[in-house]
Design brief:
about 200 residues; alpha/beta; Nucleotidyltransferase, domain 5; five-stranded mixed sheet; 5 strands; about 35% helix; globular
Amino acid sequence: MLLSNLHKHLIEAGCDEAGRGCLAGPVYAAAVILPADYKNKLLNDSKKLSEKKRYILREQIIKDSIDWAVASIDNLEIDKINILNASLKAMHKAIEQLNNTPEHILVDGNRFHPYPNIPHTCIIKGDGKYLSIAAASVLAKTFRDDYMNEMHIKYPEYDWINNKGYPTKKHRQGILTHGITEIHRKSFQLLPDSFKLNLK
């Protein structure tokens, strides 16, 4: 089972993002504060969970958490500031939205821009080690999936209902056949080098 906390006597917020590797749509991030000594045997890195389990766990996390928030940065800003900065900015936005100010931030990965007046610890593969980060990964992933499912209704040609914006064969075939939409990330390599795409 994942660990409940890093610092037992501090209010910790776990942070994670979803959608960094996608060709389309926003990057999402979540911040979650769980009760001290929280236990949940099912909770894990969202990538290791089925879609059905992620949505079941989302309801459990929302019910059990002391506080939670989700934020996003759209594709236009991703193209301006790059995906790493956009991911970290989304995490900051999520932390800002918390009603309870954490005393420490646990961040999935190895990069973070310091948040004003709150120390942080970066943990590589933290979503598979700490419950609060895993909870954040589930919220970020499911709320982003909700968005991409809505966009699939508008743009069914790209198969977003299944790929959520990631670079699958069907997604890239859609780009090749139909061009790009207003939510595609122009700064990303949307097609392999063997194909030319007019991004104007």
